[in-house]
Design goal:
single chain, alpha+beta, Rossmann fold, two-stranded parallel sheet, 11% strand, NAD(P)-bd_dom_sf, NAD-dependent glucose-6-phosphate dehydrogenase
Amino acid sequence: MRPDSDYGVSKAFGEILARYYCARWGMESICLRIGSVRDDDDPTTDPRFLRTWLSHRDLVHLVECCLRANVSYGVYYAISNNKGAFWDLSNARAELGYDPQDDASRRSPR
């Protein structure tokens, strides 16, 4: 881990604490590193969102995957299938069955 802010440190602490509870008491936990979820579901208002957007549809799908998964502990990025994304979804795809359908680059501005 290499957090770059106080916020990142707090997120890392939460993930490590969840891992500890899993190992110590068997408490299952899935940690999601949620990208950019917009009230209006529009990723076109900021260039960063084109890489970090998580559509409402893909968010619902990912939560459903988490609830069905046979995973004791895991950390997963939560974004849509965005062209040029800089976060890797391969473990969410393999371990959770996550199959995001939306891509910010294919959305037209509203």
